[in-house]
Amino acid sequence: MLRLRPFVIHFSKDSINNTFDESCSHSEVLIGQTVDDICTGRTHISDIPKITVVKRDGKWVTANNRLLWVFLQLEKLGKCTHIDVFEGFSIPIIRVATILAGGNPYSSTKTGTEMRTAVPHSSKSSRINTIIPSYSQ
Questions:
Q1: What Å distances lie between residue 14 and 4, 26, 48, 112, 127, CA to CA?
Q2: Angle at Cα 132 formed by Cα 137 and Cα 1, nearest 5°?
């Protein structure tokens, strides 16, 4: 088990769904609602499953992109500084869309910005873009 700042962990995809899928205990819940629930005390951060990270080209990367998004928002809001993570050995290729498309999973090929935070494509979108400029800490 490792203890890392969410800020040092990178997304493995260039966009993610804004809801959790059927494979988790809070299926179809908006990931932003999870952040709100933690901030208001309805849920505790320890209720969120631990993510698995792998070291790729000297950087920590996770396939647990929606959970990483939650932890990043909580870190920006001052609700967490570090998280416990499992260290894995590989990410299934299906979970790394940017590599399949020939892109870099760590930075935007257009802007070179680090994938640190994520924002919705639009207010009506069900996808969240993970390639935007990083915030400084």
A1: 21, 23, 22, 13, 10
A2: 55
Please say whether the beta carbons of 102 and 95 come within 8 A: no
Q: What percent of the chain has pLDDT over 70?
A: 64
- Nearest residue to 115 (alpha-carbon basis) of 2, 9, 19: 9
**What are 77-133's pLDDT values in tens digits?**
999 999 999 999 887 665 565 543 444 443 333 333 333 444 444 444 566 666 543
Pairing of β 2-4 and β 83-87: antiparallel
**Strand 83-87 and strand 52-56: pairing?**
parallel
- For residue 18, count other CB atoms closer than 10 A to its CB: 19
Q: Where are the beta strands (DSSP E) in the chain?
A: 2-4, 9-11, 15-17, 52-56, 59-62, 83-87, 119-120, 127-129
Beta carbons of 61 and 53 less than 8 angstroms apart: yes
Ordered domains of the chain (ranges, CATH): 2-129 (3.90.1530)
Higher pLDDT, 5 or 116: 5
